[in-house]
Design brief:
globular, mainly beta, disordered N terminus, single chain, Jelly Rolls, 9-stranded mixed beta sheet, two-stranded antiparallel ribbon, disordered C terminus
């Protein structure tokens, strides 16, 4: 649910994701009382000092909309907020869905050490692949044992954007210093929403 506050800041409240169903068909956006709303605006979301417990998943963003993803930037470190050592940042797995695209695929891989299926791509895999900077793929701008910074640049989407982060370590929490997502929304599917934005709007939350 998106609430537009008087000062123009958009706040997305955390909540339980109803299903993991992948939305691929635009026709589904017109079912069940939903409607597309023109909502052209730039949105930047920042979340800082996230501690994800062992084997837990944090849903950062899950929206039914169309737009352009400018970038996603994630910095993870081993040092927890209380100063103690947590899991290595390489244990993080990121799942970024843009319509029918997700680097690492939609098929989660079962990890016996975690006792659960791991979606997306881990920071360790990014390090092993050593991919160069490029549009539409995850790559590491900082690749150290205790600090990793992952960046994803530029890709358009028509129906859905979803980002979740999983800690695959079986015993320790992991620290995310910050995660930042910048996108340009074109249309929103808010369930008969009457929200309208202007192309010059700048929202950060």
């Amino acid at each position: 649910m998106v609430d537009v506050l008087p000062d123009g800041v958009t706040d997305i409240a955390d909540g339980v994701v109803d299903t993991d169903t992948i939305m691929l068909m635009p026709s589904k956006m017109h079912q069940g009382g939903h409607s597309q709303t023109q909502d052209s605006r730039n949105i930047t979301e920042r979340r800082r000092n996230l501690t994800i417990a062992s084997k837990a998943t944090e849903v950062v963003l899950d929206q039914l909309e169309s737009g352009n993803l400018e970038y996603v930037l994630i910095k993870a470190t081993r040092t927890l907020a209380d100063g103690t050592e947590g899991a290595l940042p390489g244990k993080l797995a990121v799942f970024l869905q843009l319509d029918g695209f997700a680097q690492g695929g939609f098929e989660s891989i079962y990890d016996g050490t975690v006792g659960a299926s791991v979606p997306g791509i881990t920071f360790t895999t990014m390090s092993e692949l050593n991919l160069p900077e490029q549009t539409g793929m995850w790559y590491l701008t900082v690749d150290q044992t205790e600090t990793k910074v992952a960046l994803f640049r530029g890709r358009s989407y028509s129906h859905r954007i979803r980002l979740s982060i999983m800690n695959t370590d079986s015993t320790s929490s992991v620290n995310i210093e910050f995660v930042e997502i910048a996108r340009r929304r074109r249309t929103a599917n808010e369930g008969m929403s009457n929200q309208y934005g202007h192309k010059t709007d700048q929202l950060g939350y």
